[in-house]
Amino acid sequence: MAWLVLVLSGLLETAWAIALDRSAGFTRPVASVVFVITLVLSMAGLAYALREIPVGTGYAVWVGIGAVGTAVVGMVALSEPANLPRLLSLLLVVAGVIGLKLFH
Q1: What pLDDT does 59 receive?
Q2: With CB atoms 3.0 to 4.6 Å apart as the test, which of 6, 19, 54, 77 could cross-link to 49 if both were Cys?
Q3: Residue 104: per-residue pLDDT
Q4: How far apart are CA 57 and CA 103, in angstroms?
């Protein structure tokens, strides 16, 4: 269960990062509220998962999921470049997250 919560919390990290961007420095109320809610839920999930998963592994997986998710959303929905070096770099992050899970 801890791993499932950790993955969901990583996805929520993506949500709060995008909401933070869309809040335009907290000048847009809806995006700002989405940011706060998803940030709190993401942190709560991370805290829950860390009761069973070592902090180094849990935090690295959480950040990796959030970073890859945010980069993918940026490329797919926000017109950020999706070139081969960026995609290969993201694959390396995914490989690292999988490795941390496998060798936990």
Answers
A1: 96
A2: 6
A3: 80
A4: 10
Least Cα distance to 36 among 11, 19, 59 occurs for 19
Per DSSP, the residues of 43-84 read: HHHHHHHTTTS-HHHHHHHHHHHHHHHHHHHHHHHS-----H
pLDDT value of residue 69: 97
> CB of 19 within 8 A of CB of 68?
no
Q: Most distant CA pair in the chain: distance in Å?
A: 43
Helix (H, G, I), strand (E, B) or coil at 28: coil
26 C-beta neighbours (distance < 10 Å), count: 12
Closest Cα partner for 73 from 3, 16, 8? Answer: 16
Condensed to tens digits (0 to 9), the pLDDT of residues 6-59 reads 999 999 999 999 999 999 999 999 999 999 999 999 999 999 999 999 999 999
